[in-house]
Amino acid sequence: MDLKETEILGDGIADHWYYSSKAKMLEQVIGPISKNKILDIGAGSAFFSKHLLKNTSAQECMCLDISYPENTEGTAYGKPIHFYRDTVPYSADLVLLMDVLEHIPDDVAFLKSHVDPLPSGTHFLITVPAFQFLWSSHDVFLEHQRRYTLKRLEKVVLECGLIPQKQFYFYGLVFPLALITRLADKFSSQDQVPRSKLVKHHPIINWLLKKICSLELHLMGMNQVAGLSVVCLAKKP
Q: Which of 148, 119, 120 minimizes the C-alpha distance to 133?
């Protein structure tokens, strides 16, 4: 999770419809695959790692993020969690890149540098923002390089030697609303100022958006058309 958005949501991260829905999606997609040791690249606040340590059989996590002031050791739900600025040798069962590749100028080289040291059988769960036509001041604020389609992310994954297992768009049911909002912003002077689109909603609105996204969890693997995020679960052969 981007630390800039941590500052916006504060202690309300876990209840915000966007992040709570993505955490449930993540948990459902990885399902029965081995996840004893997790490597979370670009972990930020480690929201997703902590969610998995709490709600799955995961036993340990290494969080990597250049924004950390120093290397630290800790625990989450009685399990070890490490916070490191730089890559260190770490053999993981599951690697998370949750909204990371869009920040990297050379996404293929970056991903490959993390794929190569890991053993055959390692799974990678990758999410990125969808569709370049949704580009807005939100992307500028978060210092994105690009947005993706399913095919574009698949190309990156294949070039790094990974085999896609599951690929789909997520937040498909809220996509029409987001599209209308983004298109409206393009004709507004406010969109010229870099700012996050992530806001704290009224509890009723937040509850409604969570309910809408929960309906999508049952069919998300079939969504090859549209959404706000591209999701790919891949495996190193």
A: 148
